[in-house]
Design goal:
about 230 residues, alpha/beta, Rossmann fold, five-stranded parallel sheet, 6 helices, 5 strands
Length: about 230
């Protein structure tokens, strides 16, 4: 007897939405080590982020540049720094006031800070005001460029300056002023000490948390932006 040969049926591909796959998973001890490493990293960041942002790294200079927007108590600290290290001149930078412009006698932070320092006892002949134009963003950069342009026209023949600014803003100011002035002029930085929170426990104060978070974001932004004119 002959077998009846059945015609071959065409096989159509089957589309599957899922497939079984092997993967590595952490064991209980592995999860314990992983969480310990994460906690250690977070702890290290919490302890070191404020000193990183509020950096103080001065250079040998006889010119102190003060950012005029810093609070009055920071201006007192700037004056103490000026007298302690016998600077020759104090240059104040600043943008126009954001509030009270039409009521205030002084129209920008540089002039306001200069008047404050004179009231604190600094001789007027040792103060130079370098104000910048109104800008909607990147005020530190605007101040750095205004200073750069003023120095080009001034006959000071200086080789280095120190920037005095407020607490966690120091790292960003240092970066931006360096890019505006280096290599012609060395730039050091001095951070003021905050009085509205404890730097070593910044995460316990709302002002400390805002200061650190805002400056971390702003510093990352400053790193990815080219400040070269």
């Amino acid at each position: 007897m002959h077998r009846k040969i059945q015609p071959r049926q065409k096989k159509f591909p089957v589309f599957r939405l899922f497939k079984r796959q092997q993967m590595w998973m952490l064991t209980v001890p592995g999860w314990g080590i992983f969480m310990t490493l994460v906690a250690s990293l977070i702890g290290f960041t919490f302890v070191n982020i404020h000193p990183f942002l509020a950096v103080t790294s001065p250079v040998k200079a006889d010119i102190l540049v003060v950012e005029g927007w810093i609070p009055d108590y920071a201006l007192v600290q700037a004056l103490a720094e000026f007298k302690k290290n016998s600077y020759r001149l104090l240059i104040i930078t600043g943008t126009p006031l954001e509030r009270g412009f039409y009521l205030a006698e002084y129209k920008n932070y540089a002039a306001l800070a200069a008047a404050t320092l004179q009231k604190l006892g600094l001789e007027p002949e040792k103060i130079i005001v370098v104000s910048s134009q109104e800008v909607t963003k990147d005020r530190t950069y605007a101040s750095a460029i205004a200073l750069q342009q003023w120095l080009v026209n001034a006959d000071l023949k200086l080789e280095a300056i120190n920037i005095f600014t407020h607490a966690t803003h120091a790292r960003r100011s240092w970066l931006i002023f360096q890019q505006a002035l280096v290599p012609k002029i060395k730039v050091g930085v001095i951070a003021s000490s905050p009085q509205n929170y404890e730097p070593s426990k910044w995460w316990m104060y709302s002002t400390g948390v805002r200061s650190v978070i805002n400056e971390v974001v702003a510093y990352i932004y400053a790193l990815v932006v080219s400040w070269k004119a």
